[in-house]
Design goal:
The chain is mainly α. The chain has one domain. It has helices at residues 4-37, 43-74, 80-109, 111-128, 131-142, 144-168. It is elongated, with a radius of gyration of 22 Å.
Length: 185
């Protein structure tokens, strides 16, 4: 059984750092909204989007690794399993936070943007689909915020858990030759 101080510290650290990790994709989301609002299009806009996506991706990995190493140095008795659990909790908190931001964005902050996207989608599909299928799509789009919340949460949580698994394998680093002794004859 793990010491209680590691468990409490893990929950505290995971909640704080999970919020930070959730803010990174949220910032990326709103930068995309700003690009749309100012009418940025073309190669330069796409290039900025790609650069920001790479920065978001690499930044999240680096922050998670840094937090795991910081936790390990603060708790020398922490095992790879403790570090993995920290990463999973961070993934859960960041996924929850970003999912809530995504729904708030769709429902309260920029609903007109999403309504225009839904209208364009319906308009395009109405050209090629029968009317009953378009009606089904309309019903589905009414649940778009719920679907977005669940999908975003699952995607972010799975991504964070896989990343935690990969990073925690080497934190704390283990030396397989640590207890090796040369027999002196």
């Amino acid at each position: 059984m793990e010491p209680n101080n590691i468990r409490i510290s893990r929950w505290n650290e995971a909640s704080r750092q999970g919020l930070l990790l959730g803010l990174i994709p949220a910032a990326y989301l709103y930068i995309g909204h700003i690009q749309v609002a100012i009418g940025a299009t073309g190669f330069f806009s796409s290039l900025i989007g790609i650069i920001l996506w790479v920065a978001k991706f690499v930044g999240c990995i680096m922050i998670m690794k840094h937090v795991m190493k910081k936790f390990e140095s603060a708790h020398p008795s922490a095992t790879n399993s403790d570090i993995f659990k920290l990463g999973v909790l961070m993934a859960m908190f960041s996924a929850l936070f970003f999912s809530v931001i995504t729904v708030a964005d769709q429902v309260y902050i920029f609903p007109e943007y999403y309504q225009s996207v839904y209208a364009m989608t319906l308009q395009e599909y109405a050209k090629v689909w029968p009317a009953d299928k378009v009606d089904e799509l309309k019903k589905l789009l009414l649940d778009a915020p719920k679907i977005s919340f669940v999908g975003t949460f699952i995607y972010c949580f799975i991504y964070g858990t896989i990343l935690s698994f990969i990073l925690s394998r080497n934190i704390p680093s283990s030396d397989p030759f640590n207890n090796y002794k040369i027999d002196e004859q």
